[in-house]
């Protein structure tokens, strides 16, 4: 919207490696927390609109940079859990 580019296609493809064998009953119960959960996440964006490919790629990078979800995945977040 800010760049006045009209998108005609936006498809996001996600792929990840997860180390969570203990939860699936496949062994691995001796793993440390750092070995569990997502180990790598790959995102591909198929985007089309009324702008050149460089502008569309820049829009994707801008969205990635300001994404609260992407930034939460990239940066450690304090996490607390307790009982009531």
In short:
The chain is of the alpha+beta class.
Structural summary, described in words:
With about 80 residues, the protein is an alpha+beta fold. It contains 2 helices and 2 strands. Strands 1-2 form a two-stranded antiparallel sheet. The termini are far apart. About 0% of the residues are buried.
What tags apply to this protein structure?
two-stranded antiparallel sheet, 2 helices, 84 residues, 25% helix, single chain, alpha+beta, elongated
Annotate the secondary structure layout:
Layout (H helix, E strand, L loop, with lengths): L6 E13 L17 E13 L3 H14 L1 H7 L10
> What is the CA-atom radius of gyration, in angstroms?
18 Å
Total number of strands: 2
Largest sheet: 2 strands, antiparallel
Gap from first CA to last CA? 45 Å
Q: Helices and strands, in N-to-C order?
A: EEHH
Number of continuous helical runs: 2
Major beta sheet, strand line-up:
1-2
On the 0-100 scale, what is the average pLDDT?
A: 88
* Helix content percent band: 25-40%
Low-confidence stretches: none
Classify the beta-strand content into a percent band: 25-35%
Shape: elongated
Structural class: alpha+beta
């Amino acid at each position: 919207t800010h760049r006045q580019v009209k998108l005609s296609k936006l498809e996001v493809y996600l792929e990840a490696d997860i180390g969570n064998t203990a939860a699936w009953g496949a062994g691995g119960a001796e793993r440390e927390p750092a070995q569990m959960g997502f180990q790598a996440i790959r995102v591909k964006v198929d985007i089309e609109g009324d702008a050149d490919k460089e502008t569309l790629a820049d829009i994707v990078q801008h969205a990635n940079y300001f994404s609260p979800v992407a930034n939460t995945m990239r940066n450690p977040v304090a996490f607390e859990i307790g009982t009531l």
